[in-house]
Amino acid sequence: MNITQTEKGEQLVSIKISVAKEDYEPKVNDSLKKMRQKANVPGFRPGMVPMGMVKKMYGMQAKMEVLNDLVSEGLNKHIVDNNLNLIGYPLSDPDQQTPADLEHQETMEFWFEAAIRPEIKYDLSNTMVDFYHVVPEEKEIQETIDNLVKRNPNVSHPETVEENDRLELKIREAEDGKEVEGGFQKDGFFFDLKTITAKTRKKKLIGKEVGAEFIFNFKDGLNSEEAAQKLLGENAPADSDYNIIIDDIIREETPELNEEFFKKVFPDKEIADLDAFKALVKEEMEKQYEAETDRILFNKMIDELVAGVQFNLPDAFLKRWIVENSRGEISMEDVEKNYEENYVKGLRWQFIEDAIVKGNMELVVTDAELKDFVVKQIFPGIDYNTLEDDMKANLDKIAANYLKEGEQTEQLKNQLADIKMTSFLKGKMNINFPEISYSDFIKKLEEERK
Known about the structure:
alpha+beta; 14 strands; 50% helix
């Protein structure tokens, strides 16, 4: 077998593979012998079919399979031995390849066209990007603090019910003041007194103590059978009386903005006063805004690099490569029509990204990083390094099961790769970050879209 390579044009090479009879004939004969052992021909016992008949029946098939294997192996070896840095995989060369006469032709010639990856030269430090540093306004900070106050009330468990308490109850379906045998019942049923619209019914509950037992009708208390059904669940009779036992009283009260509250919201921080607390809330809000806007910034950085890093693409080859790898889903007409709009930017960024990663191997996503990323996605807020070994083992198992699905794993890997690349580019590129409020930032985005 003889393999030669010639230049075909900018970034293109032509690879010719000549396969002589002595290269393939022994392998074809071996293949036919195996086929003979398995051939099922009426009138002949297994393995006893005449070889001439086997050749007539399977000769072309065996020859095609052997040639495909030899050519594929030879092409792959040529690529590796010559360190060819290719775009995709070689395609059949349309300018050279002619139909092979498998029956009469002894030496077979196969021609391939291959595209060499362009040499990418980039300078991140000289690439300027205009973006924004989104900062919260004073009213937004106060709204966030108000929400934190609502989400972190002081909780107590008093002995006597008051107007705005929440109750944990045992409820049993009742009739004429007595529990219905086999009727609906539930323990651990939570009921918020704020939902009671009938004042007389609410008065009946106020002043009750833990352990108190009495009859109550939820439909009457909520002034709505529909609301009672939603509260009780679809299996419970909404218009029935219920025998109730109070197991617990939960009282939530607005906390004071003091060190105890600050510690509850930020347990790992030492916060002395309200000003320091507000500053920390502002800082956390800025981080959240940054996380939300990083995807937009990433696209802007890509746009700048695609526009600024100059190199040529073998467009004709790439168009054919897109069509042939679409498995019939994309036509050449579709590609020609949408090539610049749908493909060029993505292709150019792919080559630039590959060049950046090649020069900065810390950007490659490792299995350990992917596992940690998945754990944080499933269990946000958990510090993996502080966990006990058995808990780490359980999380590792959950992450491993989550990553079994190939397509899902690839999506997560790409997501993490984008996060790492975004952080890397932010640290290397020249980015102008004027401060802007979130509302003004949204307005700017809408103006840009228009």
